[in-house]
Description:
Elements: E1 7-9, E2 27-30, E3 33-36, E4 40-45, E5 50-54, H1 57-64, H2 70-78, H3 85-95
Antiparallel strand pairs: 1-4, 2-3, 4-5
Amino acid sequence: MTWYEDLRPCDWWHECSLCEDARGPMNIIFADRTLRLGIRNLFVPGPEAVYVAPSLIFHYIIQHQYCPPNVFRESVMSCPKMNSNEYFSMINHLEG
Length: 96
Ligand SMILES: [Zn+2]
């Protein structure tokens, strides 16, 4: 699963509103990479749309037991490698 690789900047810094002592993690280490959370979005092509989620979805799932909708989870699991030709082809097809 490599969908985490394509984290694009969003327009604002997003902090976890559920954590009372802290504002959620600033970084996450995954597959030997350190990824900044809260300032990027995930773009996941699905069967009929491109799903966009804040990068803090990692934190919401792990720390707050958030369970995204089935269609999002299935789209993540079937998403081709980010930045690959297949990935951009799916995004372009859904946008067109
Ligand atoms: Zn939190």
